[in-house]
Design goal:
Layout: E1 4-9, E2 21-23, E3 29-31, E4 34-35, E5 44-49, E6 54-59, E7 64-71, E8 74-82, E9 92-98, E10 101-106, E11 124-128, E12 151-154, H1 157-162, E13 180-187, E14 190-197, E15 203-210, H2 211-215, E16 229-240, E17 246-254, E18 257-264, E19 273-277, E20 285-289, E21 295-296, E22 301-302, H3 303-307, E23 313-322, E24 326-334, E25 342-347, H4 359-377
Parallel strand pairs: 4-8
Antiparallel strand pairs: 1-16, 2-3, 5-6, 6-7, 7-8, 9-10, 10-11, 11-12, 13-14, 14-15, 15-16, 17-18, 18-19, 19-20, 21-22, 21-25, 23-24, 24-25
């Protein structure tokens, strides 16, 4: 499939190794844990690392991110960075690292409770940092925690709203399957943006667009509405997840493709899953269904036993270590104290007993999607 060219208004993971997180009663952790003040400790939703010692975590409430640095057995909060002058939440859903910068994306969706459009939710930001220290590249205001430079603002709002397939879901209530971004990663200088919703014919969209397309010519601190119209080369992959009630909660780069953290597309009750996607096909491979056979490295129990006792929602994912046989991942949970991070080992290339069994219908569904998009472009 060729990249789509669309005129639109555009506004101004590095592997983390040798860490083990485990949660115990009372909000305390054994092994490595977050240490320090986080303003919204029950709302952590995103994590990425720019080196083995320097990482960034974010919350889907508020407007700040936190630089955390490895210190012995802990990851210590060493800097708070505020990303906007307003008091509105940015709704940070995912963070990715590339070069000397972090990229931070909002949900680009309506507010969940009142279905209102808030401009702050539609941001796609670039934050430049010092690779040695992990701190913001430019000085931080001591009162506002706002950086004096190195912050570029953009958005995917117009790209999504003008896309023939995604456009109908833009500015639509989340309860009705409206646009809801929750995943972001970078591979070979290209963004892969995973959407929790919409889900059509058991498939969820992943937007593929080069970093340079969005941030190549941007100037620091440019406003969302100051950018000129440009043609963006991008591609939308509709990836089959096997069920109509599933969506992408996070996406991480791994060898030969991507790991997809999959969960409910709206507010349904459904187990979390892990899928493999090769980056090109319209099919994903189900590695873990309900996480029932994946090993919790620190607690010597399965993922399912942890999930059954936790009220958190898995949203952040970090690949810690990968071999030919297995994948070690860290999951960060929204809704519990400081993300209640957990580390699990996944057996690769092992198909679940619940592997997709509806190939014929899937083929027809994807042909319908393709033909509808083609006719809309005429």
């Amino acid at each position: 499939m060729e990249f789509i060219k669309l005129k639109t208004l555009t506004f101004s993971f590095v592997l983390l190794t040798s860490i083990c997180f485990a949660q115990v009663d009372g909000g305390q952790s054994r092994g490595v844990s977050f240490v320090g003040t986080i303003s919204k400790p029950y709302d952590l939703s995103a994590i990425a690392c720019i080196s083995s010692n320097n990482c960034l975590v974010g919350s889907d409430e508020g407007s700040s991110v936190y630089v955390v640095k490895r210190s012995g057995q802990n990851y210590e909060v060493i800097q708070k960075i505020t990303l906007t002058f307003t008091t509105e939440e940015i709704d940070i859903e995912a963070i990715a690292a590339w070069g000397d910068s972090y990229y931070i994306i909002g949900s680009h969706g309506m507010s969940r409770k009142k279905c209102k459009a808030q401009l702050s939710r539609f941001g796609f930001l670039k934050l430049e940092v010092d690779l040695k220290t992990g701190l913001a590249k430019y000085p931080i205001n001591s009162k506002s925690n706002f950086p004096s430079g190195g912050l570029t603002k953009n958005t995917l709002a117009n790209l999504i709203s003008n896309d023939p397939e995604l456009g109908p879901y833009f500015a639509k209530c989340l309860a009705e399957g409206g646009i809801n971004i929750e995943g972001l990663t970078i591979k070979d200088g290209v963004f892969y943006v995973g959407l929790r919703a919409p889900n059509r014919f058991d498939s969820s969209p992943i937007i593929e667009i080069a970093v340079r397309e969005l941030f190549g010519n941007s100037s620091s601190l440019s406003a969302l509405f100051d950018r000129k119209k440009e043609e963006l080369d991008y591609r939308v992959h509709w990836v089959d997840l096997g069920k109509s009630n599933l969506g992408i909660r996070e996406i991480s780069t791994i060898n030969n493709g991507f790991a997809l953290l999959v969960g409910a597309s709206r507010d349904q009750t459904t187990p979390y899953q892990l899928h493999f996607w090769d980056g090109q096909s319209e099919q994903s491979q189900l590695w873990v269904a309900d996480f029932d056979k994946a090993q919790n490295i620190n607690q010597d129990k399965s993922m399912s036993s942890f999930f059954s006792t936790s009220s958190g929602k898995a949203e952040g994912m970090l690949v810690l270590q990968e071999s030919e046989q297995s994948l070690d991942i860290l999951l960060l949970f929204d809704g519990v104290y400081k993300g209640e991070p957990q580390v699990f080992r996944i057996e690769k290339n092992k198909k679940s007993s619940e592997q997709h069994g509806h190939q014929a219908f899937s083929w027809i569904a994807h042909m319908y999607i393709y033909l509808r998009g083609f006719l809309a472009s005429l």
